[in-house]
UniProtKB/TrEMBL annotation:
Transmembrane segments: none annotated. Residues 29-114 form the Acyl-CoA thioesterase-like N-terminal HotDog domain. Residues 152-274 form the Acyl-CoA thioesterase-like C-terminal domain. This is Thioesterase family protein. It comes from the Bacteria. InterPro entries: ACOT8-like_C, Acyl-CoA_hotdog, HotDog_dom_sf, TesB_ACOT8-like_N. It comes from Williamsia marianensis.
Amino acid sequence: MSAQPAYFIPLGHDGEFDHFEPTEHTVSVWGADLQHGGPPTGLLTRALLRHEPDASHSFTRIAIDILGPVGMTENRVSTTVLRPGRQISLLGSELSVKQPDGSFRIAARATGWRLATADTATVEHAVTPALTPLPDELEGTIGLAGVGPLDAADWGSVGFVGTLEHRLIDRAAHGPSRAWVRPTLPLVAGEETTDLEKFFILLDVANGVGSRLAIGDWTFMNTDTTVHLHREPVGDWTGISAEMAVGPNGYGSTFADLYDTAGPVGRSAQTVLIRPV
């Protein structure tokens, strides 16, 4: 383990894969042998951003699919261009987890549409107002206690959620709940985490922010996170205004408006598997 706290320790590159060791700071509240969805999402986003980068292009949609438990053994990530193009391209990254027999099992995938940028500042328009109050006007807390449903799980100190600083705006009885969140650790030890990587590290928590289900009575696990951006987020803080829709047949959806301190940046959607405990 590195002396520098981080979500992942780099283990090197073998020509096709980047290899990483997840640290205790990635652990999920649902089990000590599982990673929370946030750090793997950040690692997949990092892979997309660093594959044949072009400063004249931006990612406008990134979709993450969780294919199985993301374990605490060695993780490896690969990236490829699925659809090349000068104006529009599609990239894909894949995260695999090392098994006891030494083989790797695919646990998560990401796809990202990357578009060439142009000047549209004269017609810029957002569909939601800025999120207020801003984080510096609110009291900060480490962990997510008070944001997600309060019950059996430890939302204050365990693993990944214990590395997050949050500033709660409100926990609504009806309508979306709203909070500012930022990671306190780098994604990969020895690297500077980009603003977009910080943003994607956090987005899996929209499911917890938007839920009103009691953890002692229900589980609500999201199988995916899809994010559409109309501009790139800037800074450490991500604002989340989220609400979960629960259907009658064991599944639902979490929808969130996403912000930085300058205003709205996009929206996310997650499919949620809902089961009684």
